[in-house]
What we know:
By secondary structure, the chain is mostly beta strands. Helix content is 4%, strand content 26%.
Amino acid sequence: MPSQYDGPAAGQQDTVPRRLPPVPLSPAIRSSLRPPRPISRPLPLVPRPLSCKQCKTCITSSHVLLPPSAYPPDSRIFKGFSGKASLFMEIYNVKLARPAVQLMATGAHTMQEITCSTCSSYLGWKIVRAHESSEKWKEGNCLLELENLFHNADDFTPFVARIDRRHSSDTEGSD
């Protein structure tokens, strides 16, 4: 009696044809058989979220920052109560106070105070109306104080090894 490992009996064909393994190719031939690589181009900028510093609620994004081309040539750097500030075209997750007239260094403006809708912390001002004709370009934009915003840049930057200076070689063995 033939065993199952003897192969096909005389006159019968094997159901799966036997094949030899492929011949190894040299690296030069292998690289010529690959499809051509697409031309690389830079990726578009990823909008970075700006969040409330207190509760990390997303308030705006870096891509809605008012472009410098919209500023008049004689405009200067913006300052808020706590330091540097920037003008943004869109904001989210905020509460606006009732409009009030504020006297600023550049003239009178009707503005609304902006607070976070989650934790009610102060974020900046929305400029409803500029009373000076030279300041009309600010109307409808939001002046957010950068000190009150959290820019989560660490999520997008690659890991960089840092040297721990607490345990430097000159302090070892000094005990």
